[in-house]
Amino acid sequence: MTDAPLGRSAAYRVLTTGYVGSTGPGVAATVSYISDAGRHVIFDPGMVASRDHILAPLAELGLDPDDITDVVLSHHHPDNTVNAGLFGRARVHDHKVEYLYDHWTNRDAEGYELTPSLRLIRTPGHSPEDITLLAGTDSGVVAFAGDLWWHANGPADDPVAPDRDLLRTSRLRVLAVADLIVPGHGRPFTPDAATPR
């Protein structure tokens, strides 16, 4: 069985491209918008130089924060989560819970489908709670992978990862299905033989 979603109707836009100290002035998250079947999803609304870097591109799409139905957090590091509160009406998804207002619904992220084209899978390695959102689009599967890769070059040896073997296993799992990877702090990239494993 493949991890790839069965549907191919999702669309996405990278709202802002992140960076880390070696590629930018500090740390900023790559924040993405994904839509499918009436769901409006923000992935990793983390640190940015200005909230306008998230809200202005969203407004260009004709959306405001109250239109967002779901926020997916790849993991719980502040640089990937600090702006989640911008989307006060959204369900928030992590590796084991769906949160909405004062409700807490336990559910494992592994295989959880927001829609037939949007599937969550567990991909621990950078942290124990990492998840990836796999989006089936008309051009292939896009993996919103959080910090499994900070950018196209890795890092090959993630200095934060508590378990390098687990990181490699999760990277290989994503590489098996992804046509495009959106990393946690860089531009989307097409995986190839040089992509860090």
Q: At the third CATH level, what is the topology name?
A: Metallo-beta-lactamase, Chain A
- The pLDDT mean sits at 96
Number of domains: 1
Query: What string gives the helices and strands in order?
Result: EEEHEHEEEEEEEHE
Query: What is the CA-atom radius of gyration, in angstroms?
Result: 15 Å
SS element count, helices = 3
The largest sheet has its strands arranged as: 1-2-3-4-5-6-7
> Which spans have pLDDT < 50 for at least 5 consecutive residues?
none
Largest sheet: 7 strands, mixed
> What is the β-strand count?
12
CATH architecture: 4-Layer Sandwich
What would you say this structure looks like, in words?
- This protein is α+β, with helices and mostly antiparallel strands and 197 residues long.
- It has one domain (11-183): 4-Layer Sandwich (Metallo-beta-lactamase, Chain A), CATH 3.60.15.
- It is 13% helix and 29% strand.
- The protein has helices at residues 52-60, 78-81, 164-175, and strands at 11-16, 31-36, 39-43, 70-72, 91-93, 97-100, 103-106, 113-115, 118-122, 131-137, 140-146, 180-183.
- Strands 1-2-3-4-5-6-7 form a 7-stranded mixed β-sheet, covered by helices on one side. A 5-stranded mixed β-sheet has the order 8-9-10-11-12, with no helix packed on it.
- It is globular and about 40 Å long.
- The two termini are 22 Å apart.
